[in-house]
Write a structure and sequence with these properties.
- The chain has helices at about 5-20, 65-70, 115-120, 125-135, 205-210, 215-225, 445-460, and strands at about 30-35, 55, 75-80, 100-105, 150-155, 160-165, 170-175, 180-185, 190-200, 240-255, 260-275, 275-285, 290-295, 315, 320-325, 330-335, 335-340, 345-350, 355-360, 365-370, 375-385, 385, 395, 400-405, 415-420, 425.
- By secondary structure, it is an alpha+beta fold.
- The chain has three domains: about 5-40 and about 190-305 and about 445-460, Nuclear Transport Factor 2, Chain: A; about 55-185, Nuclear Transport Factor 2, Chain: A (Roll), CATH 3.10.450; about 315-430, Distorted Sandwich (Glucose Permease (Domain IIA)), CATH 2.70.70.10.
- The strands form five sheets. Strands 14, 17, 19, 20, 21, 23, 25 and 26 form an eight-stranded antiparallel beta sheet that branches.
- Strand 12 (about 275-285) and strand 13 (about 290-295) form a beta hairpin.
- The chain is globular, with a radius of gyration of 28 Å.
- It starts with a helix and ends in a 12-residue tail after the last helix.
- The structure holds zinc ion.
Length: about 475
């Protein structure tokens, strides 16, 4: 993987080449530039990937990363718990080897909690509560996620000695008790986040454009997801559409101080300019650990309906009041959009709603209808089959799979005839995506305005080169 600086250089070379009239690569690269380094985040050395194992073992030797961290981490917060701890641990006997501590490690399973996981490993509820209380200042365990790892060390007589917890996002937390005091700390790091910027013009696809700049497909996927309510990046975009992404690049710091690029982290701000409009998005944390993308006016990116109910190959018929029907060969209106896709392609509900029809629909073949808020009903027809277990009356989420593309009913090939009714009348599905979901705007929040100004300034801090005739 190329470094950000090299990419920045290649961006300048491309700009220079375009001025000199030298042919450009697939994408007009504008470059990745590091625009600053964020505070390093914590990362715990990997615990064994086993769930709820328990063993009597000596405390593991510190890893290189831990040693590096102990040298560099700021002093931990000290919590004096002398009042809570009554007894000092007994001094080890000189005649016998010191008894070994009890070590329990585990991974939070899907839909599991730390408390359940600890209790399943035989840890007493009183100890579980003690851990929760001591960790309170560092971490809210209600935010525990599947895949988070923990390690508990107890004295031979079962008293808490050390507890550490590492989240999948790379943060780690630890409490250590010497029997009298408990030290709580958020641990240092072996991952550094640097803010970078990538920008360019799409010549073939967004994926190609981003890959040709040396970034991974993951960044393209993340970018497409931010705009999925407005732009269908499988097809809606055009040659020459422009993208800008301000994002984190993650580097692992080795013990010798050298850094290796891990992958792209979170997108902080993004812009799309092209056939589908001029759009910008800013990442903003509503509260610690709970963030979302917002438009510059403070409204959420998320909307009631997706731009399209599937990943399709092309649109074969748009919404019109008059077209020649391909089978009936008569002039009639087509009050929907026909999306062509391979048989079996999953179909998503465009928004949250309730299934009001699941069955045969005459010329529509296998048909699903979903009722949404505010008088909207969406129709998905010609399905090869329905999603397993889907029935009338079911509540579905946005992007939940409801069935699969087919050619049942009056259809010349696999496609979905997608329609939307508003108060009983068919409307053009392409024209209804301007409604935002009923999530509060953050426009009035001072911290949002500050974040927006900073991020958007960083996003467009370097001028883009002019669109070349070659594009
Ligand atoms: Zn149709």
């Amino acid at each position: 993987m190329k470094s950000g600086r090299k990419l920045s250089l290649s961006g300048r070379l491309d700009a220079a080449r375009s001025r000199l009239g030298v042919p450009l690569p697939a994408t007009l690269a504008v470059g990745v530039a590091l625009v600053g380094a964020l505070a390093p985040t914590a990362f715990m050395p990997k615990a064994p990937a086993v769930s709820g194992t328990q063993a009597s073992a000596p405390a593991p030797a510190p890893t290189d990363a831990e040693l590096a961290l102990r040298q560099s981490a700021p002093g931990p917060a000290l919590v004096d718990l002398a009042a809570l701890e009554s007894a000092k641990p007994a001094a080890p006997s000189r005649l016998q080897p010191a008894p070994e501590p009890l070590v329990t490690t585990g991974v939070i399973p899907p839909r599991g909690t730390l408390a359940k996981s600890l209790q399943a490993s035989g840890i007493r509820p009183a100890t579980v509560q003690r851990i929760a209380r001591e960790m309170e200042s560092l971490l809210d365990f209600r935010a525990a996620r599947a895949g988070d790892r923990y390690s508990l060390t107890r004295t031979p007589d079962g008293k808490l000695k050390e507890f550490s917890y590492a989240t999948t996002s790379g943060k780690s937390y630890r409490i250590v008790s010497d029997g009298q005091h408990v030290v709580a700390e958020t641990r240092g790091n072996d991952v550094v986040r640097r803010t970078a910027r990538v920008a360019g013009l799409i010549k073939t696809t967004l994926y190609d454009a981003i890959q040709s700049l040396g970034e991974s497909r993951q960044l393209a996927t993340d970018y497409a997801e931010i705009f999925q309510w407005d732009v269908d990046f499988a097809h809606g975009i055009q040659r020459g559409d422009e993208f800008q992404i301000l994002y984190e690049r993650l580097y692992r710091v080795r013990t010798d101080g050298r850094e290796t690029f891990v992958g792209p982290g979170r997108i902080l701000a993004a812009r799309y300019r092209g056939a589908e409009g001029d759009l910008a998005a800013v990442y903003f944390e509503l509260e610690k650990g709970r963030g979302a993308y917002f438009r510059p006016d403070g409204s959420p990116m998320e909307r009631a309906f997706l731009a399209a109910p599937l990943k399709y190959e092309r649109v074969s018929s748009s919404f019109t009041y008059s077209r020649l029907h391909p089978i009936l060969e008569i002039q009639r209106p087509h009050l929907g959009i026909d999306f062509v896709a391979a048989e079996g392609t999953p179909l998503w509900s465009i928004g949250e709603g309730v299934v009001v029809h699941r069955g045969w629909g005459g010329g529509f073949g296998n048909l699903v209808k979903i009722e949404h808020a505010n008088g909207y009903v969406s129709f998905y027809s010609h399905l090869s089959r329905f999603a397993k277990g889907l029935s009338v009356g079911d509540r579905v989420r946005q992007k939940q799979v409801i069935g699969y593309v087919g050619s049942s009913g009056l259809a010349t090939g696999p496609h979905v005839c997608f329609r939307v009714q508003k108060d009983g009348r068919f409307v053009n599905p392409a024209s209804i995506r301007s409604r935002a979901i009923a999530v509060g705007s953050v426009a009035k929040r001072e911290d949002f305005r500050t974040a927006r100004e900073t991020l958007l300034a960083d996003l467009s801090s370097r001028s883009l080169v002019a669109v070349d005739e070659a594009l």
